[in-house]
What does this fold into?
Amino acid sequence: MTNEELMNEDLKHIFHPCSQMKDYETLPLIPVKKGKGSYIYDFDGNEFLDCISSWWVNIFGHSNDFINQRINEQLQDLEHVIFAGFTHKPAIDLARRLVNMTAEPLQKIFFADNGSSAIEISLKMAFQYFKNKGESKPLFVSLTNSYHGETMGALAVSDTGLYKDIYEDILIKTIHAKSPALYDEDEAIDDMRRVLEENAGKVNSVVIEPLIQCAGSMKMYNPSYIARLRDVCDEFGVFLIADEIAVGFGRTGTMFAHEQAGISPDFLCLSKGITGGYMPLSVVLFTDDIYNAFYCDYNEGKSFLDSHSYTGNTIACAVANAVLDIFENENIIEKNQEKIEFIKEQTKKFTALDNVTEVRQRGMVCAIELQGYESNRRINLEIFQAALKEGVYIRPLGNVIYFMPPYCFTKEQLSKMIEVTYEIVSSKL
Ligand SMILES: *Cc1c(COP(=O)(O)O)cnc(C)c1O
It folds into this structure.
C-alpha cells in the first residue's frame, strides 16, 4: 500500500490527537511502516530522522533489539495481571530500582499507565493526605506557562491556554505563581511566597516541571529555583510535586532533574522515557510519611482507592527494567555528555541569525526561538514540512524549534538534524 491509500483509509474513521483534522487536507498524514534506531520509514520508501523521540518517549531508538528480546521473554510468562491483590516480579524489581535511583525520602510508589494519570494521582493524594488528618486544603498551586497533561485535573494545574481555555468553566480552581522560566528567579520566588501567604492554610501542594517547561515552548530555568522553592514549600507546609514526566530519564543531563537542585520532592511523577517509547506506563513516587497517612483499618475510610485497569502492566514494567539496564550497561548518562556538548557547539551559529532571538539548551533538549513572523502565519508547519523533505522530522511549538533526539543519535545524525534546520532557518523562510 502507498502512503496516500493508507491515509485515506485512516481519515475515514480516526480523529487524531492534538490535530485540527481539516489540516490533513493539505498536510498529509504519514503512515509509518517501520522504525529502526533513529529512523522511521513510511510506505512510499521515505526515511525520517526522529529528532523529537516520537513525542519525547523514544529514548533508545525504534525497535531496539535488546528491548525487543526482553519483551519476547516476558511474553512467554505473563502479559498482564490485575494489580489489586496480585503482583509480579517486573513491578517489584522496577519499584526497588526506581526508589534506589531517586532522592532518598522517596520510598513508596504507585503505578498508573500514562503521564496525566500520574498527575491526577499525586493531586488526589496531596489533597487526601490533609483530609485524612482532618484538614481541608483544597487549593493547588502551579507555575505560569506550565503543562501537566490533558485530563481534567492535570489540565486544571496547567497554564497552556491553547489546551485549557475552552474548559475553564468546568475545571477545579488552581492558582498560578510566576514561572522562573519567564521571570527573574527572585521575582518568581517572591510571587510564590505571596500566593502561599494569601492562601495560607488552604494550599496542599505546589506542582512544577523541574528545569524545563517542555510543552510551554521549552522554556528553561535553573536548579537554584527548585532548591529555594523546596524551602518555601517546607515553610508553608505544602507538598512539592515534581512532574518529571518529560524531563526524567536523562533528558536534562542527569538521570532526574531534581538531582541538580540537590533536593527531594514529596511526589515525583515519571512516565514518557520510562519504557523507551514502547508501552504506556507511569509511576508516582512519594515519601513514607505520605504512605502512612493512608495506612489504617479499612473502616476508617482513609484508603487511597484510585485504580486503572492497566495499572502496573507486566510487559510495560519488563520494558522499563530493560530501559534501566540499558542506562546501566551502556553508561548512557555519561556518554550523553559528549552529545550535549556537541549539540551546544553545533547550534551556536543560530544565534547570529536575525530571525533567531535565543538558543537555549539543557542536557538533551535544545530550543531555537524565532522572531519576526506574523502571528497568523503557521511557521511551525512550514518548518516541519521543509525539514521533512530533507528527511528530518522536527515538530516546532509555535515559533520555537526544538530538538529532543533519542540518545542513540550518532554525531552524524545530530549534525544532519542541526544542518538541515539551519538551512531552513537561515534561508528558506
Ligand atoms: C506529556 C506530559 C504530561 C502528560 O503525560 P501523558 O502521558 O501525555 O498523559 C504531563 N506532564 C508533562 C510535563 C508532560 O510533558
Notes: The longest strand covers residues 106-112. Residues 114-116, 119, 147-149, 209, 214-215, 243, 245-246, 271 surround pyridoxal-5'-phosphate (CB under 6 Å).
